[in-house]
Amino acid sequence: MFGFLFGTACLAGLFYTLRGGPWRHRHHGRGGGRWGMRGNMRWLFERLDTSPGQEKVFVKAADELTEAFAKLKDELGPSRTAIAQALRGEQFDSSSMREVNARHDALIENLRETLRTSMSQIHEALDPRQRRELADLIEHGWGYGYRGHGGGCGGWRGGYRNC
């Protein structure tokens, strides 16, 4: 009986380890873990059948967008502090709130411009079929029109469409 329990515990530990343990959803560093940005985007590259040059454009765009989002996220702490200070005083300090809003507006505008530039570069790098496929994925979600390895049309959530 003890051997059965010990074996079951070892098997459970093996599954837990293979699934990544408590770290399975965490990414280390900006590159997104062990394989970096390209490893995380491999599915998309295979789906669009991209060339190495096109992949470089995608990775560069993703890096730029990640950096813009990081700047926005870094502003969260100072914003919370400024809001708390505006509320602590005898009178509400609306000038500090205007400063917070101005910083947010600048960061959001930077994010918008980065997104616009990145999408323009990706559009330029892709051929018409790849653009159509990427647009469908963005519009309908990542499972849209799944073709699997059989190469046919349709699939989960995509229904049948012109391929």
UniProtKB/TrEMBL annotation:
Matching Gene3D superfamilies: 1.20.120.1490
A Pfam family the protein falls into: Metal_resist
Official protein name in the record: Periplasmic heavy metal sensor
InterPro entries from the UniProt entry: Metal_resist (IPR025961)
